[in-house]
Amino acid sequence: MQPIIELKDVTFGYGRQPILEQINLHLHPGQFAALVGPSGAGKTTLLKLMLQLLPPNHGQVWRRQTPPLRVAYVPQLETVDWNFPVTAEEVVLMGLTRHTTHWPWPRRAERKQARRLLAELGIGDLANRHIRDLSGGQQQRVFLARALIAQPECLVLDEPTTGVDMHSAETIFHLLADLNRQGMAILLTTHDLNMAAAHVPWIVCLNRCVIAQGPPEKVITEPILTQTYQAEMQVIRQDGLIFVHQKPHRHHYLEVVPKPVTGGWPGHDEED
Q: Does residue 262 come out as left (phi exceeding 0), alpha (psi in the -120 to 50 range) or beta?
């Protein structure tokens, strides 16, 4: 199957310091994949290279041109200016700015489409709320709706569950799985290895280079994760599920030998 995005021997860095080296990856139509790795591993940079927002220092980034690939990008929420005066509905409509000449006066049909998406994502009643006043999970779903209103073939998300509670994270992963079943290709970065193992069928372990990639049951192993995170990781498999956590550091404590008591408790002789 012909890929929709492909990286061949890509190296990238700022100045002389390489961030990514010898990256070979491809994303196929309908694929659902997650990039995992420690902070500073180059995950966000790799997304920007795949989106052609950054040019590689070496190598080649190819993206399907015929027909042009429709890609939507959901960045990390921490990059958002929460003081900008917009409602949830207006944020969603911003996803149409490349595809319509009617912004900032969208058509009635476009507003209806935005509200339909918000309702499908379970936040239809929040359309008129200021984006700042929503919870982290609600904000993430608003930005997901903004991406979906452009009807992309490929959805790219950078840390879509950062700062949200466990229930919201589970909901977001279920939403993404539903979109993938409808045929949408999805690529995301995440620090939540357990969510990725449970919901994403293809995992890419990254730390400046691709350490390993494949299905969770083959990639999420203690040797691969320890190499990826440069820390001792433990993987537990039970009832078909995979659970990951970092092993605690082993501390070496000095043995403390109590000194002999010389004074006794007040009011008592030493021999008591």
A: alpha
**pLDDT average, residue stretch 192-220:** 96
Give the 3-state DSSP-derived string for the chain, with helices as H, strands as E and coil as C: CCCCEEEEEEEEEECCEEEEEEEEEEECCCCEEEEECCCCCCHHHHHHHHCCCCCCCEEEEEECCCCCCCEEEECCHHHCCCCCCCEHHHHHHHHHCCCCCCCCCCCHHHHHHHHHHHHHCCCHHHCCCEHHHCCHHHHHHHHHHHHHCCCCCEEEEECCCCCCCHHHHHHHHHHHHHHHHCCCEEEEECCCHHHHHHHCCEEEEEECEEEEEECHHHHCCHHHHHHHHCCCEEEEEECCEEEEEECCCCCCCCCCCCCCCCCCCCCCCCCC
Worst-scoring range by mean pLDDT, 161-175, 221-235, 256-270? 256-270
pTM, two decimal places: 0.85
Which tens digits make up the pLDDT trace of 78-100?
777 777 889 999 999 999 865 55
